[in-house]
Amino acid sequence: MPNLRLADLGAEITANVRAALAEDIGSGDITAQLIPAERLARAKIITREAATICGTAWVDEVFRQLDPRVQVTWNVADGERAMQDQTLFSLEGPARALLSGERSALNFLQLLSGVATRCREYADLVEGTAVQLLDTRKTLPGLRLAQKYAVTCGGCHNHRIGLYDAFLIKENHIAACGGIAQAVASARQIAPGRPVEVEVENLEELQQALDAGADIIMLDELDHDDMRTAVTLNAGRAKLEASGGVNQTTLRAIAETGVDYISIGTLTKDVKAVDLSMRLSL
């Protein structure tokens, strides 16, 4: 499946920010009202740890929606690595807007940079192999596209976006359809041209998926020897995706079996936000 591009996310970013500001500010930031409306301020945002950056467009949109007079000046771009204590961007404008937007802006930046940072760590582990690391649907509700974009900023790739853009036929689907061949045939009739992926748990099911003409076959929890055998049996007929039992210690070995993809839920589902700080000067 193609990777998300920032150019495709304009409406999504606007909606993400509108929801975040409504959640945080509600009827008004009563604490910011302690500061005179005409007071101007400057601020700089630093990262307290090394990180791969993502989320600049969400930060820009926060301050655009709050007060277009705020000037945002970036020292980094999405996908770039930042060092500990590096200034990521600076702000200049009405103090109330800077303070009201701080939390929402940093929430987006720290989360998405956390995803990008995790992905960069994993991508570096398989550098030099031909494998592509894929995300999953294990994302925060309402922020799936944002997190999947962050995955690409860290050097990994997008799997299907949702339940609508590709088939992923699993054990229960197979049982309900009466077999792998029947499930694949039905998928071709329902949505011709959509990718059809089948999850298999052993080499016998792999052969059935190959015979049925699946585009992608997910090898679920197969050991490394069986993965290598699967690559040989496949002989390039379908794309092979490894899933399950993937972590930083097993990742390289799985990549070296020759599979095309490795899908990893942890790229998005349990990410640690990057530690950021805003320093304001009036």
UniProtKB/TrEMBL annotation:
Supply the CDD domains for this chain. Answer: QPRTase
Residues annotated to bind substrate: R103, T136, R137, K138, R160, K170, E199, D220, S243, G244, G245, I264, G265, T266
The Gene Ontology biological process terms listed for this entry are: NAD+ biosynthetic process; quinolinate catabolic process
Q: Name one GO molecular function term.
A: nicotinate-nucleotide diphosphorylase (carboxylating) activity
Q: Where would I find the Quinolinate phosphoribosyl transferase C-terminal domain in this sequence?
A: 115-279
UniProt pathway: Cofactor biosynthesis; NAD(+) biosynthesis; nicotinate D-ribonucleotide from quinolinate: step 1/1
Could you tell me which InterPro entries the record lists for this protein? Aldolase_TIM, NadC, NadC/ModD, Nicotinate_pribotase-like_C, Quinolinate_PRibosylTase_N_sf, Quinolinate_PRibosylTrfase_C, Quinolinate_PRibosylTrfase_N
| Entry superkingdom | Bacteria
Q: Which UniProt keywords apply?
A: Glycosyltransferase, Pyridine nucleotide biosynthesis, Transferase
Offer one Pfam family short name for this entry. QRPTase_C
Supply the EC number(s): 2.4.2.19
Record's Gene Ontology CC terms? Answer: cytoplasm
Annotated Quinolinate phosphoribosyl transferase N-terminal domain ranges read 29-113
Q: What does this protein do?
A: Involved in the catabolism of quinolinic acid (QA).
For this chain, the family text in UniProt reads: Belongs to the NadC/ModD family.
Q: What is this protein called?
A: nicotinate-nucleotide diphosphorylase (carboxylating)
Q: Which organism is it from?
A: Geopseudomonas sagittaria
Q: What is the lineage of its organism?
A: Bacteria, Pseudomonadati, Pseudomonadota, Gammaproteobacteria, Pseudomonadales
